[in-house]
Recover the amino acids of this structure.
């Protein structure tokens, strides 16, 4: 079944020719589009996996070569990321190809429509379910600002990020506080769950004792940034969902700043799942260090999965937790 706004735009059938779709989630209703003529781009691992399981051809980045007849962009929350997706879609459209943009009003679709209307004619638009979908037939030439294209941003000395990655403009304050509470010597085998673009991983690698560090990150773009940012032979990079991530052998240290939003919705269950994964990855004598917003109710989950839990620091906004005695430590079967 098609999502409500897609039904208004494509109820009579999908666009002709080859279709490029950017930003669809695993829950987006795309029934009616032809998988044989559609290419999806999604770099978030759980959504990528879900879309592929539904039978779609899915890439992590738009292909460089093909020119498409139509493109459909689902707007993300971050304005810079939205600009980057629209620029990428336009760059891969033939002149005159239909560029469809769908988004919620809370994500700025109306202001984007106003901006684009000054650059090209809006051929069609529909409003429904607190959002809007509209179509522009791609003009000839470079009709979008050059700075809309995704470009690396120096978020900290020696660290680059890309539009849309978590804390793209600078070091997350929770991660900075967590790093300040890490001991000068860490266990030899470490995991950074939800590693982002690698700043916290660099602080881990700067401690004594670390021989191997597994970076686990669901955002493909953020993980690519981490690869670029860490000039070190010890990291191993895993594009994966931290909630079901496993390793062949247990580790003796986990560090994490878990997310607590699933898309647009707050979901403390994400952090709870990260805690369960940490316990599963650790040896019985292993240690977890984590940071969380002070209001998040992780204490019950920590008590279920660890024998000892201590708050070792924090401030009015964050709490720093150290936990030992993992109750479900064991061996996994896949990376």
């Amino acid at each position: 079944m098609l999502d409500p706004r897609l039904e208004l735009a494509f109820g009579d059938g999908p666009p002709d020719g080859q279709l490029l779709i950017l930003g669809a989630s695993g829950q987006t209703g795309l029934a009616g589009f032809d998988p044989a003529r559609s290419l999806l781009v999604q770099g978030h691992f759980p959504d990528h996996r879900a879309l592929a399981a539904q039978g779609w051809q899915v890439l992590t980045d738009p292909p460089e070569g093909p020119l498409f007849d139509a493109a459909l962009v689902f707007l993300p929350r971050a304005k810079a990321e939205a600009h980057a997706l629209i620029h990428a879609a336009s760059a891969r459209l033939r002149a005159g190809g239909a560029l469809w943009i769908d988004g919620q009003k809370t994500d700025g679709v109306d202001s984007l429509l106003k901006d684009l209307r000054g650059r090209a004619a809006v051929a069609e638009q529909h409003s429904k379910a607190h959002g809007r979908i509209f179509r522009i037939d791609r003009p000839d030439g470079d009709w979008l600002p050059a700075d809309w294209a995704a470009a690396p941003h120096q978020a900290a000395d020696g660290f680059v990020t890309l539009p849309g990655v978590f804390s793209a403009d600078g070091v997350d304050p929770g991660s900075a506080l967590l790093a300040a509470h890490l001991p000068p010597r860490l266990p030899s085998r470490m995991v950074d769950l939800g590693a982002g673009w690698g700043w916290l991983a660099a602080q881990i690698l700067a401690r004594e004792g670390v021989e191997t560090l597994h970076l686990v990150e669901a955002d493909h773009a953020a993980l690519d940034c981490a690869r670029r940012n860490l000039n070190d032979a010890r990291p191993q990079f895993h594009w994966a969902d931290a909630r079901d991530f496993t390793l062949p052998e247990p580790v003796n240290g986990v560090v994490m700043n878990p997310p607590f939003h699933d898309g647009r919705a707050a979901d403390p269950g994400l952090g709870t799942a990260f805690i369960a994964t940490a316990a599963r990855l650790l040896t019985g004598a292993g240690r977890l260090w984590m940071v969380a917003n002070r209001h998040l109710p992780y204490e019950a989950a920590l008590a279920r999965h660890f024998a000892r839990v201590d708050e070792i620091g924090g401030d009015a906004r964050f709490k720093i937790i150290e936990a030992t005695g993992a109750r479900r430590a064991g061996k996994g079967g896949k990376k």
In short: DSSP finds nine helices and 18 strands in the chain.
